From TrEMBL:
Pfam families attached to this UniProt entry: Thioredoxin_8
InterPro entries: RdCVF, Thioredoxin-like_fold, Thioredoxin-like_sf, Thioredoxin_domain
Gene3D superfamilies associated with the record: Glutaredoxin
Name this protein carries in UniProt: NXNL1 protein
Origin: domain of life: Eukaryota
SUPFAM superfamilies documented for this protein: Thioredoxin-like (SSF52833)
PANTHER family: NUCLEOREDOXIN-LIKE PROTEIN 1
Organism field: Pygoscelis papua (Gentoo penguin)
Domain Thioredoxin, chain residue ranges per copy: 1-157
GO biological process, one term: photoreceptor cell maintenance
Gene Ontology cellular-component annotations: mitochondrion
Amino acid sequence: MAALFTGKVLRANRERDEVETEQELGRALENKVLLLYFGSGQCPRCRQFSPLLKDFFLRLTDEFYVERASQLVLVYVSRDETEEQQSAFLRSMPKRWLAVPFGDAFKRELELRFAVSEVPAVVVLKPNGEVIVGNAVEEIRRVGPACFRNWQEAAQLVDRNFLLAEDFDDWTWRSITDPIRRLKYKLDKETEAKNKERKEEGEESS
């Protein structure tokens, strides 16, 4: 996915620091479904939809709602008229959102690439940049967070949380001790066979 942002810069929400696309962003996008949210804080339709998208994102990524955050990342591509408007809108949205910097020509490039003509629009992408859903606005409205499972399956994500921590510890311990147990079992069997052989030899000699 980082290939989509090669040579570009994204900004972390409410942070002055830019996200280096070649390093931090590459790690941030790895093995995740990416949402590109094309919107504006002034657009009436966006003002209706944005709170739904915020709730959708939080219910999948915030520890208040889920034990482990879903493999999901969102980049805001704004049509705000001023940088202040974009900043004001982002301040009301989750901190984990990323955003294309205001005035960056890359926004237009993304609109053309994904054929976005009006907002709000949510383009859902696989980690390799392939499109899963061209515009998921209605799906998010209709289904809510449940639609993420379909995207996750379509993206063929590797489930990083397939083992709970305690299960993993137990699995690791079993993996380490199993060869030892198998060796001990083998030695016990060999000892038992030798003892039996000696006993039989002793009975024959007597």
